[in-house]
Amino acid sequence: MATVEQAQGLSKDERWPAIAADWTATRDTLQMWTQIVGKLKVALSPFQNQLWHTALHPTGRGLTTQPIPYDDGVFETSFDFLDHNLVIVTSSGGRKVVPLYERTVASFYEEVMGCLASLGIDVRINTKPQEVPNPIPFDQDTTHGSYDADAVNRFFRAMSASASVMWKHKSRFTGKASPVHFFWGSFDLTTTRHSGERAAIPPGRDYIYRVAENEANWAAGFWPGSGPIEYAAYYAYVIPEPEALSRAMIEPVGAVWNAAMREFILPYEAVRSSADPEASLMAFLESTYARGAELGKWDRNRLEISEVPTPRHKVAA
């Protein structure tokens, strides 16, 4: 039987590509572009718990807002990292395409907002970037303007391969859980599981933390790196952090506890260079969740199933 990789004509290295070492400028520009698009959801999408309404979602070609309500219809804005376009479509048949190339954030912002206006979508967003140091308003940002199409495509393929494993890992968990989605503020692909218990909010935490982390949860994701870790990596953490979590035995080899971040970290390179990247990532997801749930005294019998139900075969007439 042909494997998924064989059916798609992709080798392991193509499905799990090396992340370009010199793509930092492109990464930072792309993050600003995703923030512009993501803030359309903040402005117009109905609220969902844990701020899930603000996230972008992976597609077979990039990232999408999914349909956003507007007037009597909807519109959707999608990044295409194969043809390198931003595509805006409306339920009334409108369509605009914004090319992705080396251009400033200010130029990108101006064209996106102009395209929305020409489609009859009157929307205003907060132009100040979130969760980044030294934020420059989008309409004034002529600092970030890099776009390496090959590097973006490599990141997209790594993200897609990671998302497939993360979705599979969700299969046996039946409690409250997020989709596998992309938060543009922190610029990471992530998923969370919730125990059903509330979590205390430490004094002084910001709005995002107060709304997104107010329940006991395990979270894991894929992040291209920045700040304390300037390389692509997987992470996992538990809120509230159980005692002794930092000393828990985690798989696979290469996964470590980062005391400053209070998270387990597994370099992407360790996964992609392993004999079986899918199994390596699955081991990280499952071991961090299992140790966190056990130490946090989650009711796993209530939250998990032992096997995934399958449809009954039709009885021949």
Q: What do these coordinates show?
A:
It is globular and about 55 Å long. The longest helix is centred in the N-terminal third of the chain and has 21 residues, at 24-44. The chain has 2 domains: 17-140; 149-303. With 317 residues, the chain is an alpha+beta fold. A hairpin with a 4-residue loop joins strand 5 and strand 6. Strands 1, 2, 3, 4, 5 and 6 form a 6-stranded antiparallel sheet that branches. A 6-stranded antiparallel sheet has the order 7-8-9-10-12-11. It has helices spanning 4-8, 12-15, 24-44, 105-118, 149-169, 207-212, 268-272, 277-295, 300-303, and strands at 57-58, 62-64, 68-70, 73-80, 85-90, 95-99, 181-183, 188-198, 215-223, 233-239, 256-258, 263-267. Helix 5 (149-169) crosses helix 8.
Unreliable stretches, pLDDT < 50, 5 or more residues? 1-7
**Order of SSEs, N→C?**
HHHEEEEEEHHEEHEEEEHHH
Euclidean distance between termini CA atoms = 29 Å
Provide the β-strand percentage band: 15-25%
- Helical run tally: 9
Number of strands: 12
Number of domains: 2
> Average pLDDT, to the nearest integer?
95
Helix proportion? 25-40%
Rg, Å, rounded: 20 Å
Q: Major sheet: size, sense and barrel closure? A: 6 strands, antiparallel
The secondary-structure class comes to alpha+beta
Which shape, going by the Cα principal axes? globular
